[in-house]
Amino acid sequence: MTVIDTQIVTVGVGPVSRDDVVAVARHDAIVSIGADALAAMADSRAVIERLADDTVPHYGVSTGFGALATRHIPLDDRKQLQRSLIRSHAAGNGPEVEREVIRATMLLRLSTLATGRTGVRPVVAQTYAALLNAGITPVVHEYGSLGCSGDLAPLAHCALAVMGEGVVRDASGAVRETADALREAGIEPVELAEKEGLALINGTDGMLGQLSLALHDLARLVTTADITAAMSVEGLMGTDNVFAADLQALRPQVGQGASAENMRKVLSDSQIRESHRLADECPRVQDAYSLRCAPQVAGAVRDTIAHAALIADRELASAVDNPVVTLDGRVESNGNFHGAPVAYVLDFLAIAAADLASMSERRTDRFLDVSRNHGLPAFLADDPGVDSGLMIAQYTQAAIVSELKRLANPASVDSIPSSAMQEDHVSMGWSGARKLRRAIDGLSRVLAIECLTASRGVQLRAPLTPAPATGAVSQALGVPAGPDRFLAPDIETAVELVKTGGVVDAAEAHTGPLN
């Protein structure tokens, strides 16, 4: 099993956790390899070495790869076979992939090596750990994975660094020749032996690493969405009666109930809400869907996250390689490298993120329209006409939402055959992961603009005071009411508050822990 400390992640025969991935990828936690993993790798390596001299071809040990698997490779050419595999597959192109993604990818490949099911020598795994601990990150590019037969090009660029070739970024972030960076760090490059090159590139680690990071981010963002929705309900003089626990229980969707509970807590003790609680003080019968149905949509997002987390945890517990060394010592080909399970949930999360953002934008738009904002000035401007208020902030939000809808188009329904039709159906899971990262960034920005808008709306309800939780969020934003000012920095401040969890922290200081 994996043991996580604030400083150390120990990789053993059992799976790493999503928290482990975040700790190593984002916080540079130190990686160690457990004794159980070293023993398991040594045992399975002995199996591979027994096959190396066999006159019967064994895929990945004494044959070519993919459509070239029928070619038997003589013993003297085996090391060149491994070098050629990695060099040829390190064919990525396009923009550089983020450091945290590469670190997550390397940790997950290391985790699979540590299961003892891939047949690599312990030194290979130890070198992966050494690179992570030295802060050395291979340069990997946007394009090159079809999400099947492994995230081939991204993983090959990582393996190339283990061989001492290619380019990396060192701990300071500088681009270096790998050989120089390894020499300075005291890390010996690995000369790959039979089966090892294939074992380093045959996994779903890139897409799974990004899924793990995405789930961490989305868990915070869906709580943030509950808070911003509650602020909008308050600022638009909406009702919290519809979030009552007994009403939610009539439709026992787990996520919906959790979101409604959050909104009740955030709106607790709001003088603004109390000012129109009685029927003769509030002529409206029902709020618009974007207010009234906020828990239903955010709750569905929560349930989607829960499903994706289940798939991620199963994949984290997997030993994905082809061929694989079985527990009873056989070496067998398989199709476990196909990324479909991960690809589907990556697409599903992008759909959920787009819809959550879409509802957020609708609430923002209501604040700006005098026919729907219940007494607030046009565009929440200080002097409408002279000032434009938050008019263009909504334009920015709308542009992002439109982009999120495009990103919600699934990648996993596409497939382009490769390797001379040997690999004739692929998952495109890496592509799904890349667009999900962009979707999460966009959702963060949309929620930030709603937070900014709702805060302005709540301020304009003075002298009525907001709920303690919503008031704390407004205070954390620190944006004063008044004439128009340079708006982009205010938006970016709100974005940073959303991304770092500051919105949730400010609310929870008054509500206690939220779901």
UniProtKB/TrEMBL annotation:
Alphabetical UniProt keywords: Histidine metabolism, Lyase
Family annotation (InterPro entries): Aromatic_Lyase (IPR001106), Fumarase/histidase_N (IPR024083), HutH (IPR005921), L-Aspartase-like (IPR008948), Phe/His_NH3-lyase_AS (IPR022313)
Organism name: Branchiibius cervicis
Superkingdom of origin organism: Bacteria
An annotated Gene Ontology molecular function: histidine ammonia-lyase activity
Enzyme class: lyase
Keyword Lyase: yes
Descriptive protein name: Histidine ammonia-lyase
Location relative to the cell: Cytoplasm
Pfam families for the chain: Lyase_aromatic
Gene3D superfamilies hit by this protein: Fumarase/aspartase (Central domain), Fumarase/aspartase (N-terminal domain)
Assigned protein family: Belongs to the PAL/histidase family.
Pathway(s): Amino-acid degradation; L-histidine degradation into L-glutamate; N-formimidoyl-L-glutamate from L-histidine: step 1/3
Record field: catalytic activity: L-histidine = trans-urocanate + NH4(+)
Keyword hit for Lyase: yes
Gene transcribed to yield this protein: hutH
Catalytic activity, EC: 4.3.1.3
UniProt cross-references to NCBIfam families, sorted A to Z: hutH, PRK09367.1
Leader sequence residues: none
CDD domains registered for this protein in UniProt: PAL-HAL
